[in-house]
Write a structure and sequence with these properties.
Elements: H1 15-32, H2 45-55, H3 60-73, H4 77-82, H5 85-90, H6 99-113, H7 122-125, H8 133-144, H9 153-163, H10 172-185, H11 191-204, H12 223-226, E1 247-257, E2 260-265, E3 276-277, E4 280-282, H13 289-299, E5 309-317, E6 322-331, E7 343-347, H14 349-354, H15 359-373
Parallel strand pairs: 1-6
Antiparallel strand pairs: 1-2, 1-4, 2-3, 2-7, 5-6
Helix pairs in contact: 1-11, 2-3, 2-8, 8-11, 9-10, 9-11
The protein binds iron/sulfur cluster.
The site of iron/sulfur cluster has 14 residues, from helix 9 and helix 12.
Length: 375
Amino acid sequence: MTAHQPRTEPAKIPPNQRRTVRRQLLTWYDRHQRDLPWRRHSNNAYAQWVAEVMLQQTRVDTVRDYYTRFMKRFPTIRALADAPHDAVLKHWEGLGYYRRVLNLHRAAQRLRDEKRAIPTTAAELHELPGLGDYTAAAIAAIAYGERKAAVDGNVARVIARLFGITEDVLSTRGKKTITTMAQELIPCKRPGDFNQAWMDLGSAVCTPRSPDCAACPLRRGCVAAATNRTGELPVRDGGRKSRAIPRVDLVSVIFVNDGRLLVRQRPKGGLWSGLWEFPTVERPGGGSDAQSIKTITKDSGLAGSHHPVRAGSIRHKLTHRDLRFEVYVAASDRETKNENGMKTRWATPAQLDRLSMSTAHRRIHDAVRGVLNNQ
Ligand code: SF4
């Protein structure tokens, strides 16, 4: 096999090529690594854990401020374990994917209750809630120096291009090939830096759409650069077009009583776990807003509320759902005790600001402020 011939089998990278890639990547990393707050605490497994969980599905620039605020309020895993979940959620508000923080909090509490320190190997870390292969490997390599490759989409892209992997990197076989190669490349010395170097290279140089091959430390041995196939690699999902995200129609009613708004707390574990929201139901296909409003009003025990006024619509896209909210405001002259088995409360706008809400419901609140001011 020549240096630039595409490979389709799980690789055995020759030792001299491994050494070259390690040297090139680490030398580049020493010069170009990003200054990130959690990198100033490489030996602190808790700091790496918080950062890696935040970085799942979220951009580095967004994570910086959240990480700093979170670590200031919960500087140790014990502080996190002892904090009320509402306080933890409040420091996550706006980051999305709230199951991440639920799992992080649960894992911290489990370690506290079992009187254990943070595990030091990827295999043990993997047994904690919310810690998948990538996150467990990243923490173990960065904080404890375990020779373990953390393989995410960035790493898969760089490796697929570098070695000309033509397998679908999202297939079981393709994932195995990439993971095997990544693991072969990891050095015994500085495995944490090496993992972070992949991450930085994938994020800053070998980007999905326009890789800057001229600035890449790996360009001399790169199959994709040599064969002008950076646009074709990596192969993802067999080249099929991604499926459309399903649309979900929802109706929300903001009940107003003496300047306070009715909110309810979502159960733990599902979408927007533990967050507060305005009463909302999914509108069934072919159903009307009026039917949905009736359901919400009945569930809220507020059947005597004034006729709801339409206050606007909000579109909020998640990775897996396209949410369309129709929003109504209704004056209510009575209290409610329960809403569909969920915890409920009436909150002033100032109190609402202190509660943890999803970005979608914050947007709903912002959109109806004008209507609320005229109530
Ligand atoms: S040379 Fe280009 S395609 Fe190859 S790894 Fe570097 S940036 Fe990516």
